[in-house]
Amino acid sequence: MTKIKLLVVDDEKDLLELLVRRFKRKEFVVDSAGNAEDALQLLKKNDYDVAVYDIRLPKMDGITLLKESKRIQPECEVLILTGHGTIDTAIEAMKLGAMDYITKPYNLSELEVMIAKAYENKRLKEKNDSMKTIIAQHNEFTLVGDSPNFKEVLNMTKRIADSDVPVLIEGESGTGKELIAKALHFWSTRAEEPFVPVNSGALPEHLLESELFGHVRGAFTGASQDKKGLVEAAKGGTLFLDEVGEMPLSLQVKLLRFLETGEFRRVGDVRERHIVVRIVAATNRNMEKEVAEGRFREDLYYRLNVVKLMIPALQERKADLPALIDYFISKTKNPDKKLSATARAAIEQYGFPGNVRELGHLIERGVLLSKGNMIEKEDLLLPQDKKEHNVSAEVAANQLCSLEDMEKEHIENALKQMEWNKTKAAEILGISVRNLYRKIEHFQLKE
What we know:
single chain, 447 residues, alpha/beta, 5-stranded parallel β-sheet, 14% strand, elongated
Protein backbone atom coordinates (compact mmCIF):
# COMPACT_ATOMS: atom_id res chain seq x y z
CA MET A 1 0.00 0.00 0.00
CA THR A 2 1.29 3.51 -0.88
CA LYS A 3 2.04 5.61 2.23
CA ILE A 4 0.61 9.13 2.50
CA LYS A 5 3.35 11.76 2.24
CA LEU A 6 2.44 14.52 4.68
CA LEU A 7 3.89 17.98 5.43
CA VAL A 8 2.86 19.68 8.71
CA VAL A 9 3.66 23.35 9.35
CA ASP A 10 2.99 24.95 12.76
CA ASP A 11 5.01 27.32 14.94
CA GLU A 12 3.80 25.68 18.19
CA LYS A 13 6.68 23.26 18.78
CA ASP A 14 4.88 20.92 21.22
CA LEU A 15 1.83 20.60 18.96
CA LEU A 16 4.04 20.03 15.92
CA GLU A 17 5.93 17.21 17.64
CA LEU A 18 2.64 15.65 18.78
CA LEU A 19 1.28 15.67 15.19
CA VAL A 20 4.47 14.18 13.77
CA ARG A 21 4.51 11.34 16.33
CA ARG A 22 0.81 10.65 15.80
CA PHE A 23 1.00 10.39 12.03
CA LYS A 24 4.25 8.44 11.96
CA ARG A 25 2.52 5.83 14.15
CA LYS A 26 -0.13 5.71 11.43
CA GLU A 27 2.72 4.92 9.01
CA PHE A 28 2.51 8.23 7.15
CA VAL A 29 5.73 9.65 5.70
CA VAL A 30 5.88 12.91 7.66
CA ASP A 31 8.01 16.06 7.35
CA SER A 32 7.53 19.13 9.53
CA ALA A 33 8.49 22.81 9.66
CA GLY A 34 8.04 25.56 12.23
CA ASN A 35 7.78 28.36 9.68
CA ALA A 36 6.78 28.98 6.05
CA GLU A 37 10.32 29.55 4.79
CA ASP A 38 11.49 26.09 5.90
CA ALA A 39 8.28 24.59 4.53
CA LEU A 40 8.96 26.06 1.08
CA GLN A 41 12.45 24.54 1.04
CA LEU A 42 10.94 21.12 1.81
CA LEU A 43 8.33 21.59 -0.94
CA LYS A 44 11.07 22.34 -3.46
CA LYS A 45 12.96 19.13 -2.56
CA ASN A 46 10.20 16.61 -1.82
CA ASP A 47 6.86 15.51 -3.19
CA TYR A 48 3.82 15.60 -0.86
CA ASP A 49 0.27 14.31 -1.08
CA VAL A 50 -1.22 16.46 1.69
CA ALA A 51 0.02 19.53 3.60
CA VAL A 52 -1.38 20.91 6.86
CA TYR A 53 -0.67 24.65 7.48
CA ASP A 54 -1.36 26.74 10.55
CA ILE A 55 -2.84 29.99 9.30
CA ARG A 56 -0.82 32.07 11.80
CA LEU A 57 2.92 31.69 11.20
CA PRO A 58 5.83 34.08 11.89
CA LYS A 59 6.99 36.33 9.02
CA MET A 60 5.16 34.61 6.14
CA ASP A 61 1.59 33.62 7.11
CA GLY A 62 -0.33 30.49 6.08
CA ILE A 63 -2.19 32.25 3.24
CA THR A 64 1.04 33.35 1.57
CA LEU A 65 2.51 29.89 2.15
CA LEU A 66 -0.57 28.39 0.49
CA LYS A 67 -0.12 30.58 -2.60
CA GLU A 68 3.58 29.76 -2.89
CA SER A 69 3.11 26.03 -2.28
CA LYS A 70 0.36 25.82 -4.92
CA ARG A 71 2.82 27.36 -7.37
CA ILE A 72 5.49 24.77 -6.49
CA GLN A 73 3.22 21.73 -6.05
CA PRO A 74 -0.28 22.48 -7.39
CA GLU A 75 -1.30 18.82 -7.01
CA CYS A 76 -0.65 18.76 -3.21
CA GLU A 77 -3.90 19.06 -1.21
CA VAL A 78 -3.74 21.66 1.58
CA LEU A 79 -5.64 21.73 4.89
CA ILE A 80 -5.68 24.91 7.02
CA LEU A 81 -5.50 25.01 10.84
CA THR A 82 -7.31 28.09 12.13
CA GLY A 83 -8.56 29.71 15.34
CA HIS A 84 -12.11 31.00 15.80
CA GLY A 85 -11.02 34.54 15.07
CA THR A 86 -9.57 33.69 11.64
CA ILE A 87 -12.35 31.58 10.09
CA ASP A 88 -13.04 34.25 7.43
CA THR A 89 -9.37 34.07 6.47
CA ALA A 90 -9.58 30.27 6.30
CA ILE A 91 -12.57 30.53 3.94
CA GLU A 92 -10.51 32.90 1.80
CA ALA A 93 -7.77 30.25 1.80
CA MET A 94 -10.21 27.72 0.35
CA LYS A 95 -10.93 30.13 -2.50
CA LEU A 96 -7.18 30.16 -3.15
CA GLY A 97 -6.97 26.37 -3.41
CA ALA A 98 -7.04 24.91 0.12
CA MET A 99 -9.25 21.84 0.29
CA ASP A 100 -10.68 22.42 3.78
CA TYR A 101 -10.00 23.93 7.21
CA ILE A 102 -10.31 22.80 10.83
CA THR A 103 -10.64 25.08 13.85
CA LYS A 104 -8.48 24.88 16.95
CA PRO A 105 -8.75 23.14 19.33
CA TYR A 106 -9.47 20.08 17.22
CA ASN A 107 -9.71 16.33 17.66
CA LEU A 108 -6.68 14.49 16.21
CA SER A 109 -8.92 11.71 14.88
CA GLU A 110 -10.97 14.33 13.01
CA LEU A 111 -7.80 15.77 11.45
CA GLU A 112 -6.71 12.26 10.49
CA VAL A 113 -10.02 11.68 8.67
CA MET A 114 -9.62 15.00 6.82
CA ILE A 115 -6.08 14.05 5.72
CA ALA A 116 -7.31 10.67 4.44
CA LYS A 117 -10.11 12.45 2.54
CA ALA A 118 -7.65 14.96 1.06
CA TYR A 119 -5.37 12.13 -0.05
CA GLU A 120 -8.26 10.28 -1.71
CA ASN A 121 -9.28 13.51 -3.45
CA LYS A 122 -5.73 13.86 -4.82
CA ARG A 123 -5.77 10.26 -6.08
CA LEU A 124 -9.09 10.83 -7.87
CA LYS A 125 -7.73 13.97 -9.53
CA GLU A 126 -4.64 12.04 -10.68
CA LYS A 127 -6.81 9.30 -12.20
CA ASN A 128 -8.90 11.91 -13.97
CA ASP A 129 -5.78 13.68 -15.28
CA SER A 130 -4.41 10.34 -16.50
CA MET A 131 -7.61 9.65 -18.41
CA LYS A 132 -7.40 13.06 -20.05
CA THR A 133 -3.71 12.68 -20.88
CA ILE A 134 -3.89 9.12 -22.16
CA ILE A 135 -6.82 9.47 -24.55
CA ALA A 136 -5.68 6.41 -26.49
CA GLN A 137 -6.03 4.10 -23.50
CA HIS A 138 -8.49 1.26 -24.24
CA ASN A 139 -9.18 -1.90 -22.31
CA GLU A 140 -10.81 -3.44 -25.36
CA PHE A 141 -8.40 -5.77 -27.09
CA THR A 142 -8.68 -9.16 -28.69
CA LEU A 143 -6.08 -11.91 -28.85
CA VAL A 144 -6.89 -14.32 -31.66
CA GLY A 145 -5.15 -17.67 -32.00
CA ASP A 146 -5.23 -21.24 -30.82
CA SER A 147 -1.92 -22.56 -32.15
CA PRO A 148 0.25 -24.30 -29.52
CA ASN A 149 3.12 -21.77 -29.53
CA PHE A 150 0.74 -18.80 -29.27
CA LYS A 151 -1.26 -20.46 -26.49
CA GLU A 152 2.00 -21.00 -24.63
CA VAL A 153 2.63 -17.23 -24.70
CA LEU A 154 -0.91 -16.51 -23.48
CA ASN A 155 -0.59 -19.00 -20.63
CA MET A 156 2.68 -17.44 -19.50
CA THR A 157 1.11 -13.95 -19.77
CA LYS A 158 -1.71 -15.01 -17.43
CA ARG A 159 0.76 -16.51 -14.95
CA ILE A 160 2.86 -13.34 -14.60
CA ALA A 161 0.14 -10.69 -15.04
CA ASP A 162 -0.18 -9.94 -11.32
CA SER A 163 3.55 -9.80 -10.70
CA ASP A 164 5.36 -6.49 -10.23
CA VAL A 165 8.53 -7.59 -12.06
CA PRO A 166 9.52 -5.96 -15.36
CA VAL A 167 8.69 -7.93 -18.51
CA LEU A 168 10.52 -7.79 -21.85
CA ILE A 169 8.43 -8.74 -24.89
CA GLU A 170 10.45 -9.70 -27.96
CA GLY A 171 9.17 -10.45 -31.43
CA GLU A 172 9.21 -9.29 -35.04
CA SER A 173 7.37 -6.11 -36.03
CA GLY A 174 3.63 -6.62 -36.31
CA THR A 175 3.39 -9.75 -34.12
CA GLY A 176 1.17 -8.06 -31.51
CA LYS A 177 3.60 -7.10 -28.74
CA GLU A 178 1.39 -4.22 -27.53
CA LEU A 179 -1.61 -6.56 -27.30
CA ILE A 180 0.37 -8.86 -25.01
CA ALA A 181 1.41 -5.83 -22.95
CA LYS A 182 -2.26 -4.86 -22.63
CA ALA A 183 -3.09 -8.41 -21.58
CA LEU A 184 -0.44 -8.21 -18.85
CA HIS A 185 -2.16 -5.06 -17.60
CA PHE A 186 -5.86 -5.79 -17.99
CA TRP A 187 -5.60 -9.40 -16.78
CA SER A 188 -4.07 -8.10 -13.53
CA THR A 189 -5.32 -6.28 -10.46
CA ARG A 190 -4.04 -3.06 -12.12
CA ALA A 191 -6.87 -3.15 -14.66
CA GLU A 192 -8.56 -0.07 -13.17
CA GLU A 193 -5.32 1.91 -13.26
CA PRO A 194 -3.76 3.56 -16.38
CA PHE A 195 -2.10 1.63 -19.20
CA VAL A 196 0.32 4.12 -20.74
CA PRO A 197 2.19 3.31 -23.99
CA VAL A 198 5.39 5.17 -24.94
CA ASN A 199 7.01 4.73 -28.36
CA SER A 200 10.72 5.08 -27.63
CA GLY A 201 11.61 5.49 -31.31
CA ALA A 202 9.01 8.06 -32.31
CA LEU A 203 10.48 11.23 -30.77
CA PRO A 204 13.85 13.01 -30.73
CA GLU A 205 15.90 12.46 -27.57
CA HIS A 206 15.13 15.80 -25.82
CA LEU A 207 11.39 15.48 -26.48
CA LEU A 208 11.31 11.84 -25.42
CA GLU A 209 12.80 12.67 -22.01
CA SER A 210 10.21 15.40 -21.46
CA GLU A 211 7.41 13.11 -22.66
CA LEU A 212 8.56 10.35 -20.34
CA PHE A 213 9.47 12.24 -17.17
CA GLY A 214 7.72 15.60 -17.67
CA HIS A 215 9.20 19.08 -17.35
CA VAL A 216 8.91 22.25 -15.30
CA ARG A 217 8.14 25.72 -16.57
CA GLY A 218 11.17 27.32 -18.20
CA ALA A 219 13.07 24.04 -18.59
CA PHE A 220 13.48 24.75 -22.31
CA THR A 221 12.13 27.07 -24.99
CA GLY A 222 8.38 26.61 -25.22
CA ALA A 223 7.98 25.08 -21.74
CA SER A 224 5.46 27.70 -20.56
CA GLN A 225 4.05 25.59 -17.73
CA ASP A 226 4.76 22.49 -15.67
CA LYS A 227 3.82 19.23 -17.38
CA LYS A 228 3.47 15.74 -15.99
CA GLY A 229 5.29 13.00 -17.87
CA LEU A 230 3.84 9.66 -18.91
CA VAL A 231 5.65 8.00 -15.98
CA GLU A 232 3.46 9.99 -13.59
CA ALA A 233 0.37 9.41 -15.72
CA ALA A 234 0.94 5.65 -15.34
CA LYS A 235 1.10 5.81 -11.51
CA GLY A 236 -0.20 2.57 -10.02
CA GLY A 237 -0.64 1.02 -13.46
CA THR A 238 1.56 -0.11 -16.35
CA LEU A 239 4.11 1.88 -18.36
CA PHE A 240 4.62 0.20 -21.73
CA LEU A 241 7.94 1.12 -23.38
CA ASP A 242 7.52 0.14 -27.01
CA GLU A 243 10.60 -0.06 -29.27
CA VAL A 244 12.81 0.25 -26.18
CA GLY A 245 15.81 -0.80 -28.28
CA GLU A 246 15.70 2.60 -30.02
CA MET A 247 16.00 4.57 -26.77
CA PRO A 248 19.09 6.86 -26.75
CA LEU A 249 21.92 5.80 -24.41
CA SER A 250 21.74 9.02 -22.36
CA LEU A 251 18.08 8.36 -21.57
CA GLN A 252 18.77 4.70 -20.81
CA VAL A 253 20.79 5.84 -17.77
CA LYS A 254 17.80 7.73 -16.38
CA LEU A 255 15.43 4.86 -17.11
CA LEU A 256 17.75 2.46 -15.28
CA ARG A 257 17.78 4.70 -12.21
CA PHE A 258 13.99 4.92 -12.27
CA LEU A 259 13.70 1.13 -12.53
CA GLU A 260 16.05 0.64 -9.57
CA THR A 261 14.63 3.30 -7.24
CA GLY A 262 11.24 4.39 -8.57
CA GLU A 263 12.61 7.95 -8.43
CA PHE A 264 13.00 10.53 -11.21
CA ARG A 265 13.18 14.25 -11.87
CA ARG A 266 11.16 16.25 -14.36
CA VAL A 267 13.34 18.02 -16.94
CA GLY A 268 14.66 21.21 -15.36
CA ASP A 269 13.55 20.26 -11.84
CA VAL A 270 15.66 19.55 -8.74
CA ARG A 271 12.90 17.76 -6.84
CA GLU A 272 12.92 13.98 -6.66
CA ARG A 273 9.59 12.27 -7.30
CA HIS A 274 8.69 8.69 -6.53
CA ILE A 275 6.22 6.58 -8.52
CA VAL A 276 5.16 2.95 -8.22
CA VAL A 277 4.47 1.54 -11.69
CA ARG A 278 4.89 -1.78 -13.52
CA ILE A 279 7.31 -1.63 -16.46
CA VAL A 280 6.68 -3.66 -19.62
CA ALA A 281 9.09 -3.16 -22.54
CA ALA A 282 8.98 -4.44 -26.11
CA THR A 283 11.45 -4.63 -28.98
CA ASN A 284 11.86 -6.20 -32.41
CA ARG A 285 15.65 -6.06 -32.13
CA ASN A 286 18.09 -8.73 -31.02
CA MET A 287 18.84 -7.15 -27.66
CA GLU A 288 21.83 -9.35 -26.86
CA LYS A 289 23.42 -8.16 -30.11
CA GLU A 290 22.51 -4.54 -29.28
CA VAL A 291 24.24 -4.93 -25.89
CA ALA A 292 27.30 -6.62 -27.41
CA GLU A 293 27.70 -3.79 -29.95
CA GLY A 294 27.32 -1.07 -27.30
CA ARG A 295 23.99 0.37 -28.44
CA PHE A 296 22.10 -0.73 -25.34
CA ARG A 297 23.24 -0.76 -21.72
CA GLU A 298 23.88 -4.26 -20.37
CA ASP A 299 22.68 -3.38 -16.86
CA LEU A 300 19.42 -1.92 -18.20
CA TYR A 301 18.86 -4.98 -20.41
CA TYR A 302 19.14 -7.35 -17.47
CA ARG A 303 16.94 -5.07 -15.35
CA LEU A 304 14.20 -5.15 -18.02
CA ASN A 305 14.69 -8.82 -18.85
CA VAL A 306 13.46 -10.30 -15.55
CA VAL A 307 10.80 -12.23 -17.48
CA LYS A 308 10.92 -12.55 -21.28
CA LEU A 309 7.97 -13.30 -23.56
CA MET A 310 8.81 -14.33 -27.14
CA ILE A 311 5.95 -13.65 -29.58
CA PRO A 312 5.95 -16.07 -32.53
CA ALA A 313 5.94 -14.69 -36.08
CA LEU A 314 2.83 -15.33 -38.17
CA GLN A 315 4.83 -17.82 -40.24
CA GLU A 316 5.25 -19.88 -37.06
CA ARG A 317 1.52 -19.90 -36.30
CA LYS A 318 -0.06 -20.39 -39.73
CA ALA A 319 -2.77 -22.51 -38.07
CA ASP A 320 -4.21 -19.25 -36.71
CA LEU A 321 -4.69 -17.73 -40.20
CA PRO A 322 -8.39 -18.72 -40.66
CA ALA A 323 -9.39 -17.26 -37.28
CA LEU A 324 -7.34 -14.11 -37.85
CA ILE A 325 -8.82 -13.59 -41.34
CA ASP A 326 -12.38 -13.93 -40.00
CA TYR A 327 -11.60 -11.55 -37.15
CA PHE A 328 -10.14 -8.83 -39.41
CA ILE A 329 -13.05 -9.09 -41.84
CA SER A 330 -15.51 -8.78 -38.94
CA LYS A 331 -13.85 -5.49 -37.92
CA THR A 332 -14.43 -3.84 -41.32
CA LYS A 333 -17.51 -1.92 -42.51
CA ASN A 334 -18.47 -4.94 -44.66
CA PRO A 335 -18.22 -7.88 -42.23
CA ASP A 336 -20.26 -10.20 -44.49
CA LYS A 337 -17.61 -10.39 -47.20
CA LYS A 338 -15.76 -13.66 -47.80
CA LEU A 339 -12.42 -14.69 -49.30
CA SER A 340 -12.48 -16.70 -52.49
CA ALA A 341 -10.63 -20.02 -52.54
CA THR A 342 -7.84 -18.55 -54.69
CA ALA A 343 -7.50 -15.50 -52.41
CA ARG A 344 -7.31 -17.72 -49.33
CA ALA A 345 -4.71 -19.95 -50.99
CA ALA A 346 -2.64 -16.90 -51.96
CA ILE A 347 -2.70 -15.67 -48.36
CA GLU A 348 -1.65 -19.07 -47.03
CA GLN A 349 1.33 -19.12 -49.43
CA TYR A 350 2.42 -15.55 -48.62
CA GLY A 351 5.33 -15.06 -46.20
CA PHE A 352 3.95 -12.07 -44.22
CA PRO A 353 7.14 -10.16 -43.32
CA GLY A 354 4.86 -7.65 -41.56
CA ASN A 355 3.16 -10.44 -39.57
CA VAL A 356 -0.34 -10.03 -38.10
CA ARG A 357 -0.36 -6.26 -38.63
CA GLU A 358 0.31 -6.74 -42.34
CA LEU A 359 -2.45 -9.36 -42.54
CA GLY A 360 -4.89 -6.87 -41.00
CA HIS A 361 -4.00 -4.18 -43.55
CA LEU A 362 -4.16 -6.71 -46.38
CA ILE A 363 -7.69 -7.83 -45.40
CA GLU A 364 -8.81 -4.22 -44.97
CA ARG A 365 -7.50 -3.43 -48.45
CA GLY A 366 -9.18 -6.50 -49.93
CA VAL A 367 -12.56 -5.60 -48.43
CA LEU A 368 -12.22 -2.04 -49.71
CA LEU A 369 -11.24 -2.97 -53.29
CA SER A 370 -13.56 -5.95 -53.84
CA LYS A 371 -16.67 -5.17 -55.87
CA GLY A 372 -19.03 -7.90 -54.69
CA ASN A 373 -19.34 -9.98 -51.55
CA MET A 374 -16.34 -12.09 -52.57
CA ILE A 375 -12.77 -10.88 -52.08
CA GLU A 376 -10.65 -12.11 -54.96
CA LYS A 377 -6.90 -12.60 -55.06
CA GLU A 378 -6.32 -9.49 -57.18
CA ASP A 379 -8.21 -7.36 -54.61
CA LEU A 380 -5.54 -8.13 -52.02
CA LEU A 381 -2.70 -6.52 -53.98
CA LEU A 382 -0.21 -8.95 -52.51
CA PRO A 383 3.37 -7.62 -52.76
CA GLN A 384 4.55 -10.49 -54.98
CA ASP A 385 1.66 -9.75 -57.41
CA LYS A 386 2.82 -6.14 -57.71
CA LYS A 387 6.37 -7.35 -58.11
CA GLU A 388 5.34 -9.50 -61.09
CA HIS A 389 4.08 -6.37 -62.84
CA ASN A 390 6.45 -3.69 -61.54
CA VAL A 391 9.77 -5.46 -61.03
CA SER A 392 12.64 -3.83 -62.81
CA ALA A 393 14.11 -5.42 -65.96
CA GLU A 394 17.41 -6.02 -64.19
CA VAL A 395 15.83 -7.93 -61.28
CA ALA A 396 13.53 -9.84 -63.65
CA ALA A 397 16.48 -10.95 -65.73
CA ASN A 398 18.55 -12.13 -62.82
CA GLN A 399 15.64 -13.49 -60.71
CA LEU A 400 17.80 -12.88 -57.66
CA CYS A 401 18.75 -9.59 -56.05
CA SER A 402 20.47 -8.36 -52.93
CA LEU A 403 18.62 -8.03 -49.61
CA GLU A 404 19.14 -4.28 -49.82
CA ASP A 405 17.44 -4.14 -53.23
CA MET A 406 14.56 -6.23 -51.90
CA GLU A 407 14.20 -3.94 -48.89
CA LYS A 408 14.24 -0.84 -51.11
CA GLU A 409 11.55 -2.28 -53.40
CA HIS A 410 9.39 -3.45 -50.50
CA ILE A 411 9.51 -0.01 -48.86
CA GLU A 412 8.76 1.73 -52.16
CA ASN A 413 5.77 -0.57 -52.77
CA ALA A 414 4.41 0.14 -49.29
CA LEU A 415 4.74 3.91 -49.83
CA LYS A 416 2.99 3.71 -53.21
CA GLN A 417 0.16 1.55 -51.87
CA MET A 418 -0.40 4.03 -49.04
CA GLU A 419 -0.12 6.99 -51.48
CA TRP A 420 3.04 8.12 -49.67
CA ASN A 421 1.26 8.44 -46.33
CA LYS A 422 4.38 7.76 -44.26
CA THR A 423 2.54 7.02 -41.02
CA LYS A 424 0.41 4.28 -42.65
CA ALA A 425 3.39 2.93 -44.60
CA ALA A 426 5.44 2.71 -41.39
CA GLU A 427 2.60 0.77 -39.73
CA ILE A 428 2.48 -1.75 -42.59
CA LEU A 429 6.27 -2.12 -42.57
CA GLY A 430 6.34 -2.47 -38.80
CA ILE A 431 8.90 0.29 -38.24
CA SER A 432 8.81 3.74 -36.64
CA VAL A 433 8.09 6.81 -38.81
CA ARG A 434 11.54 8.14 -37.89
CA ASN A 435 13.13 4.92 -39.12
CA LEU A 436 11.10 5.11 -42.35
CA TYR A 437 12.38 8.63 -43.03
CA ARG A 438 15.95 7.31 -42.61
CA LYS A 439 15.23 4.51 -45.10
CA ILE A 440 13.71 6.94 -47.62
CA GLU A 441 16.81 9.13 -47.39
CA HIS A 442 19.16 6.12 -47.58
CA PHE A 443 17.50 4.65 -50.66
CA GLN A 444 16.86 8.15 -52.16
CA LEU A 445 13.18 7.35 -52.71
CA LYS A 446 11.00 10.08 -54.18
CA GLU A 447 7.26 10.49 -54.42
